[in-house]
Amino acid sequence: MLSKEAEIEQVDIATLAEARGLLIVDAIIEYRDSRSEEALSHSWVVAAGWTGVFLAYCTILIIIFRFALHHTYTHVDKWVAMVEDKTGKMAETDVLVTVIRLTLWMIAFALFFLALYYYLSQVLFSFPTTRSFAAILLNNFSEPVLALGIAFVETIPDFVALGVIFFLTRYFLKIVRLVFVNIELGVIESKGFEQDWTWPTFRIVRGVLVAFLIVIAYPYVPGSGTEAFQGMTIFLGVILTLGSSSIISNLLARLFVIYRRGVNKGDLIEIDDHMGKVESVLVLETMLRTPRNELISIPNSKLLGASLTNYSRGGPTAGLMISTKVGIGYEEPQTKIEAMLLEAAARTKGFKNTPAPFVLRSGLADFAVVYEVFAIPNSIDGLPRLRSDLHANILDVFNERRVQIMTPAYDRDPPDPKIAPVETAPA
Fold this sequence. Notes:
The protein is of the alpha+beta class. It has five domains: 2-34; 37-154; 157-243; 250-310, SH3 type barrels (Roll); 322-400, Alpha-Beta Plaits, CATH 3.30.70. Helices cover 61% and strands 11% of the residues. The protein has twelve helices and eight strands. It has helices at 2-9, 13-34, 37-87, 94-126, 131-154, 156-185, 198-217, 227-243, 245-260, 300-305, 334-347, 383-400, and strands at residues 268-271, 274-281, 285-289, 295-299, 308-310, 322-328, 358-364, 369-375. The strands form two sheets. The chain has a five-stranded antiparallel beta sheet with strand order 4-3-2-1-5. Strands 6-8-7 form a three-stranded antiparallel beta sheet. The longest helix has 51 residues, at 37-87. The chain starts with a helix and ends in a 27-residue tail after the last helix.
């Protein structure tokens, strides 16, 4: 064994043996000196010194803890008094006080056990017989803390890079917002760009910009290169992909609804037997207020897939036309039926005189001619009520003229005409 070490050290065996002997002698002398009465007395003095420091530390910790607790209670009482004075209501302070007390106790216990840990380590390290246990205690705690501190120092450049990216992101977003504010105010004009598109487009640009900067910042996130971080990222991506398909479809549908200009806030629409005014086009849904004052939530994806009627969008003509159909027997003169329908439209308040209402022959059924009267309302507000008034006037006019309405079905002529008696209006 010595021969191999001698070859490595490039010395002769006698010289190497003499050096090893001197080391052994020094170790024996040190071992005996550390266990002498004088050394043990010094160890007890050192242990007593550490005990005094630990007791002084605990005393200071108790004083600071009581001062912080009293100071916190005083501020809480002042804050509660101010809130009660401004609002006139009794504030619930039990939960707040409990949380503050628990937080202070946790901090105090953490500081106490940290000091106790190092106190025991130093006391054990003062005696040669327990020095090995002290080394184990110090290494089990100090080495992970030291490694954590070194890792934190190594990540400081990454934090600096993340800070720069964060401030650049805020700066770019402010510039983009300023551009869209000027577009909304008309300072910046863009041909073909609707004003209603301003803020939805800003949100899209903001989302794209933030996503791009997140991709740039990802390599600088501490731990981004570890397998655990990458696995967690993949797991979250799978969860979002499986659980948010409907959310994403509604988000995309909202963009199509906005840019297609099919529905805007305030429009009167009809979709799936629901008619009402659009109160708001939200991220995932569109809120509809019906004539019954019901608030209906319609998913944005449904606005794209369902048949939708928008009564607020006028065409190149004077405005929206509403109509209703009646079936009248072939024996009735066409001019008579047309005049009766026009009279019913004239009795209905809420229609424009120009362009005037008109009647079309919509169909020749098996037993009746289908007449359809068209009229343009002054306003789309109260459209269901206007239809109801038109239907009521049609019934009144046909009953006054003793003409039977034969829709929706006709089998044969009854012995007596199915005509309601004419109600005499009060004087």
